[in-house]
Design brief:
With 314 residues, the chain is α/β, with parallel strands linked by helices. The protein has twelve helices and ten strands. Strand 9, helix 10 and strand 10 form a beta-alpha-beta unit.
């Protein structure tokens, strides 16, 4: 049954740069072009790190005054301690007001189609987290106490370090083309996570301390993703996995391995830059990008959307 009155909020973490501002504006365009009122009226909350000058950020994004877009500054102490992980995590610390579903999005994602099937079945009465399993084991860097991420011991060791029971169900990373990597718990890519307000509030209480503890165990650049999984299990959230169409990389092998066609993608994560670079959505660069011949079906869809978006920049 369609929930036509469902209220949505999308939260996007960025640094204060023209590249990120252009991606947010593109995200806004794609969202508002969807027919249903819940997309046209949805709130976009942009969380800005790097100890930014928020007045300057708003001046540089005066276009947003015409839409339901708000700008939130990451507190200085949070950014000083956690850097960009703090920007990602701060999305959970912003109180949820008058919405039913909060979606954490990366700046390099865009809605190509609606997400109605997810929303129409989304549990609203118990704390729920929905996401798509990450492509790769988390890169760790150097000087880790935790076992190597490609070892079978990594995830059980991490759950044990946080005194969390090992889950009954495990998954393969979505780029595990040869089924050769150890399995993982529901470890989600942060490009698209859907939560209800109760889940947001619960995660907010523990996300900073869990990220802090993780920093002493692993130097992984993915520690905010790791923290999300650990806190969700520790608090007993209702955790659901989403199909690739809700967080589809424009990586041809990942698309083929997960059986997703470009015309079925709901949320495109345009992270691969072999044909289109993320910074080419900037006004000074977009025309060159639009004149280029691309062959990846996901990039063709991205380019078609960017062509319609270009008309709004006149």
């Amino acid at each position: 049954m369609a929930r036509t009155d469902l209220r949505l909020e999308f939260r996007i973490p960025i640094s204060p740069s023209e590249r990120f501002f252009s991606q947010v504006r593109f995200f806004n365009f794609a969202l508002r072009r969807l027919e249903a009122a819940r997309y046209r009226n949805a709130r976009i909350t942009v969380v800005v790190g790097d100890q930014c000058d928020m007045d300057a950020v708003r001046r540089q994004n005066s276009w947003s005054e015409n839409f339901n877009v708000t700008w939130e500054r990451v507190p200085d102490d949070i950014f000083q301690e956690f850097h960009y992980w703090g920007t990602a995590n701060w999305r959970l610390n912003i109180p949820v007001c008058d919405v039913d579903v909060v979606i954490l999005s990366d700046a390099d994602t865009v809605l190509l189609r609606d997400i109605d099937p997810l929303l129409d079945e989304f549990p609203l009465s118990k704390p729920t987290l929905c996401g798509h399993v990450a492509h790769l084991p988390p890169h760790q860097g150097h000087d880790n106490i935790a076992p190597p991420a490609l070892s079978p011991e990594f995830w059980p060791w991490l759950f044990g370090a946080f005194e969390i029971p090992w889950p009954d169900r495990t998954y393969r990373y979505t780029m595990d083309l040869k089924a050769e990597w150890p399995v993982c718990p529901p470890y989600f890519n942060l490009g698209f996570l859907a939560l209800n307000p109760e889940a947001v509030a619960l995660l907010a209480v523990e996300i900073a301390e869990t990220t802090r503890r993780l920093g002493r165990l692993t130097q992984s650049v993915m520690r905010c993703q790791l923290a999300m999984t650990l806190v969700a299990f520790r608090l007993g959230l209702n955790i659901r996995t989403l199909s690739t169409e809700y967080n589809a990389s424009n990586h041809l092998d990942i698309m083929a391995h997960n059986g997703v066609k470009a015309d079925r993608i709901r949320v495109l994560h345009y992270q691969v830059e072999d044909e289109i670079a993320r910074d080419e959505l900037q006004p000074a660069l977009i025309d060159d990008m639009l004149s280029r011949v691309v062959t990846n079906p996901a990039n063709i869809a991205l380019q078609d959307l960017a062509r319609a978006y270009r008309e709004t920049l006149q």
